[in-house]
Amino acid sequence: MSAPAARPLDVATAVGPTSRKGLVFRRFLRNRLAVLGLMVLGLIFVAAFVGPLVSKWNYYENDFDNLLSPPSSEHWFGTTQTGVDVFAQTMRGLQKSLIIGILVAIFSTSLSAFVGSVAGYLGGRIDRSLMWFVDLLLVLPSLLVLSILSRFYQGKSWLLLVVGLTIFDWMITSRVVRGMALSLRERDFVRAAKYMGVPPFTIIVRHLLP
User: Fold this and answer.
1) What residues have CB less than 8 Å from 86, skipping those under 6 apart?
2) Phi/psi at 149 (5° precision)
């Protein structure tokens, strides 16, 4: 006799519960534009960090035989007035731009998620104080402030630029996260954790932020 067909419950039990990371990954793969954007970003990274390895010119070397020359087999993007290879300089600038952009995105997203979730979950004076600070930063013209402060970090570490951009790039997202936290804190799983004596910081990190 043939074995009975597996019921849906048996199949679900055999496969096992899907983890949160697995769900996020599957949702990401369903978004074609997001996948395409990730592929383009990956290609740009490969070009930025592999391109200088296949070029025989460095971004600081001068070719005095080719001053302000057009693109050629020797210099793919041409040269500057001092004979510096434009392709090597472009790849060097692309490397710094990508690193700065990704660091700013990571730091600003983390900061906005933390501030927004803390303000939304705790509420009260903490919420009012944090949102007052957010509104204060939103009023300030960020581009003007960064332009004024740029003279102080010229010639210094580029990490100061990351810090400056991060300071003025998290406020709007924090308000969005705060609104989501206000709705999530009324959910049953958050209330259950609260009644079980789970500390607020643990609830924010384990239940709200994900």
Assistant:
1) 75, 77, 78, 79, 80
2) -80, -15
User: 149 pLDDT band (50/70/90 cuts)?
Assistant: confident
8 Å CB contact between 96 and 158: yes
User: Percent helix, strand and coil across the chain, each rounded to 5?
Assistant: 70, 0, 30
Spatial distance between the Cα atoms of 23 and 19, rounded to a whole number of angstroms: 6
20-50 residue pLDDT tens: 788 888 888 999 999 999 999 999 999 999 9
What b/e string do you get for 176-207 counting C-beta neighbours within 10 Å, with b at 16 or more?
Answer: ebbeebbebbeeeebeebeeeeeeeeebbeeb
